[in-house]
Write a structure and sequence with these properties.
By secondary structure, the protein is α+β, with helices and mostly antiparallel strands. It has helices at residues 17-34, 96-109, 124-129; strands at 2-3, 8-13, 53-59, 62-71, 78-86, 114-120, 133-134, 139-141, 144-152. Strands 1, 2, 3, 4, 5, 6, 7, 8 and 9 form a nine-stranded mixed beta sheet that branches. It is globular and about 35 Å long. The structure holds coenzyme A (COA). Coenzyme A is lined by residues 30, 84-86, 91-97, 119-120, 122-123, 125-126.
Amino acid sequence: MLRTAWVAVECRPAATPEELAAHHAVRHAVFVTDQRVFAESDRDPQDDNPRTLHVVGMVDDVVGGTVRLFPLDGEPGLWQGDRLAVLHEHRLRGLGEPLVRYAVRTAAELGGRRMVAHVQLPNVRFFERLGWHHDGDVEVYAGVPHQPMAIDLQR
Ligand SMILES: CC(C)(COP(=O)(O)OP(=O)(O)OC[C@H]1O[C@@H](n2cnc3c(N)ncnc32)[C@H](O)[C@@H]1OP(=O)(O)O)[C@@H](O)C(=O)NCCC(=O)NCCS
């Protein structure tokens, strides 16, 4: 349990079917209902990859945020993090940052060398503050401009 300046939070993989459902519910609320990045569902084949970790950010035993991570083919030790989402009512209280740190630490512990993410432009500074750097030109993903970013996991 990490006690931030604001709230006590815990980041870990969803441990039960209910927590996995809550993980997906947060993603749906943020990326489908709120941001409308996806029309009906943000689920994709990576959700069925047995190596994918579906992480929940717990705030006082309630799932308030998510992140997802999985290894990519093509480069040894390459991992991707995505679906970082914090429900409106939990934002700016110190949950998003621990979720990113958890994803980075976990990928490193699993042998990762480098982690990549496609970051929505308003969040680039947030990731830079956490040690991420630009990793190519802006790309449009799901109709939204994203900055490719990366972090060295073997620092
Ligand atoms: C981006 C997001 C995950 C941040 O989560 P959060 O829980 O509000 O972030 P935290 O409270 O941990 O913020 C930590 C610090 O980063 C700052 N911060 C938060 N969002 C930021 C942003 N978009 N840009 C710059 N700084 C930001 C906070 O002010 C805080 O700063 P402080 O330590 O000086 O007080 C959240 O706003 C969110 O879910 N947004 C919608 C979904 C989304 O855009 N996902 C990312 C796709 S790339």
